[in-house]
Specification:
This protein is of the alpha/beta class. The protein contains 15 helices and ten strands. Helix 8 packs across helix 9. It binds pyridoxal-5'-phosphate (PLP). Pyridoxal-5'-phosphate binds next to helix 9 and helix 13.
């Protein structure tokens, strides 16, 4: 039973007797140990936190459930956000679940097809503006200050509060904090939330240490790395296509207090990690999520030694959010087959042979592979 983050972590959140304990089963996402990439990148232990397993397919649900619960507690009946996609999908889902009026503003042409289709399915009031995410967010901030509508972007303090539960889960699963946390950085709310979660748990004695926070932006959208806002951010990873992060200062605090870094990776590095994650680990994350893995790859190539370290990469959303990019990157001809068994046998001859040769290695590769009987 997935009880949701409000119930599971109620003692660590601002829950009052009047807070509605809503849940769509968010949180409690898998922490999967890497079997192949860890060796390639020279990591002692490497884990992936699969945030795409949340109800709307991204980590945004952890913060949204908290923000929406507190909005209802305060008597609000309307929520609003600007979004590169996942925030709107999450807001619209929880808005529908709670029967609220949901208003969503998205930058025209900047939002991945899966997120748009998903957001529309929940039937929010959705508007498309010709401008960047940052410009849309400015408009939403002004509007929600003027009207009785609750802002549910990560400027809403309850968003960050709810999102910190992911750090709790990692510590609860591993029995301690990892040495490193790699995470994509867009508006920088999530890195802020994780750092808060790790600090709170540590001060309560639930962990012996706090991880070094390793934030990664996309090269064409790296305002924090460059030290100045970017008017027209560009990257294939739409979820982190943000030129002026709302939680900029807090991200720097997380970096500095944890002795971490905020660095950037190129789109090519992001796409290489995106494909590697799927083909070598069976994990289909969205492009922005792959920035965390691309970050480990970059530092490992640069000579950083993770061989006796425990590393966690946050896979922030599911790959299904961006089907266009997935098809484009698949770049694999589909083999046509006549409806004929003979043709199939011929076509698969090599494949079967190859799989038999795999048997010899299977015991090493798959620890739970049975010993051959003969
Ligand atoms: C929102 C989002 C991010 C960026 O998180 P921030 O809190 O804005 O830094 C990264 N990946 C995915 C999939 C997202 O939805």
């Amino acid at each position: 039973m997935r009880e949701g983050v409000l119930k599971r972590y109620r003692d660590f959140l601002e829950i009052t007797p009047n807070t509605p304990m809503i849940s769509m089963g968010e949180g409690n996402t898998p922490l999967v140990r890497s079997r192949f990439i860890a060796n390639e990148l020279g990591c002692g232990e490497l884990y992936f936190k699969l945030e795409g397993c949340n109800p709307s397919g991204s980590f945004k649900d952890r913060g949204m459930v908290m923000a929406v619960a507190k909005a209802i507690e305060a008597g609000s009946t309307a929520i609003m956000c600007a979004s590169t996609g996942n925030t709107s999908a999450s807001a619209a889902a929880y808005g529908a679940y709670c029967g609220l009026t949901t208003i969503v503003l998205v930058p025209k042409g900047e939002i991945a097809a899966g997120k748009m289709a998903q957001a529309l399915a929940f039937r929010p009031n959705i508007m498309v503006v010709s401008g960047t995410f940052d410009q849309a967010l400015t408009m939403v901030r002004t509007f929600t200050e003027k009207y009785p509508v609750t802002l549910v972007n990560s400027l809403n303090p309850y968003r960050i509060e709810g999102q910190k539960t992911a750090a709790f889960e990692i510590v609860d699963d591993l029995g301690d904090a990892p040495d490193y946390l790699f995470i994509p950085v867009g508006n920088a709310g999530n890195i802020t939330a994780y750092w808060r979660g790790f600090c709170e748990y540590n001060s309560l004695g639930k962990s012996t240490k706090r991880p070094r926070m390793m934030g990664f932006q996309a090269e064409g959208s790296a305002p924090i790395v460059r030290g100045e806002p970017i008017a027209e951010p560009k990257t294939v990873a739409s979820a982190i296509r943000i030129g002026n992060p709302a939680s900029w200062k807090q991200a720097l605090t997380a970096r500095d207090e944890s002795d971490g870094i905020i660095d950037s990776v190129s789109d090519d590095e992001i796409l290489a990690a995106y494909k590697m994650l799927a083909s070598k680990e069976g994990i289909f994350g969205e492009p922005a999520s792959a920035a965390s893995v691309a970050g480990v790859a970059k530092l490992s190539r640069g000579g950083m030694d993770f061989s006796d370290k425990r590393v966690v990469c946050v896979i922030t959303g599911t790959g299904l959010k961006d089907p266009d990019l997935a098809s484009q990157q698949a770049d694999m001809p589909l083999q046509e087959l006549p409806l004929d068994l003979g043709a199939m046998e011929k076509a698969l001859e090599e494949v079967v042979k190859e799989s038999l040769s795999l048997r010899a290695k299977a015991i090493e590769v798959i620890p739970w592979y049975p010993e051959p009987i003969c």
